[in-house]
Amino acid sequence: MGYEKRIDGRKKFEELRPIEAKAGVIKRADGSAYFKIGKTVAYAAVYGPRDLYPKFMQNPKKGILRCHYNMMPFSGQGDRVRPGANRRAKEISMITEKSLIPVINLEDFPNAVVDVFIELPQTDAGSRCAGITAASIALADAGIIMKDMVSAVAVGRVDDKLVVDLDYNEEAYEEGRAAADVPVAFLPNSGKLSLLQMDGNITKDELKKALEMGKEACKEIYEVQKKALKDKYQLGE
Description:
By secondary structure, this protein is of the alpha+beta class. The chain has 4 helices and 9 strands. A hairpin with a 2-residue loop joins β6 and β7.
């Protein structure tokens, strides 16, 4: 019969869940952000650029970006997350760095490090994308000169339909074809892709269409990111 209606009540397969974003939410950080999409909540805090220690790690030609992704133990829809470092958190920390590096000129920060800490107190799918989006706002809030913002969202297929911003129930949908989840991140002004991952099987034509859907969705997310930054500075915070 096919996937005819989104489980959470959204009217369109291209529709994002409700979004909220704020900049400057953690006072002692150099930059910070809150980003919520549906029931997934991400906080990001930026510290730096600051001297990198131990000194043998320093590079006199450029700085480094370090991202630290963490889901809190009772944040998820599924099983309790084991506290502390784990392989999934390390993997997502690495891909977050790779998603953000293209917009930062690390040559401006020789011998230095920019640390980004991402905490997720509540998740309902799309956590890595929410973390990347929050981190991009936080970097801008920290005054880091950026070539572009980075906006991220998950696209994919639920049974026979391509959808934007899957929630947990869609990721776990068991009728028909197994769901495919494709997290993507775009640089909205240039249109370049800085993240592409895939969980599940999807055809080449489906992937091409899903990427176009993701690109358009990221333009919407970008407008929310910009508004969060403008709101903060208009209020003089």
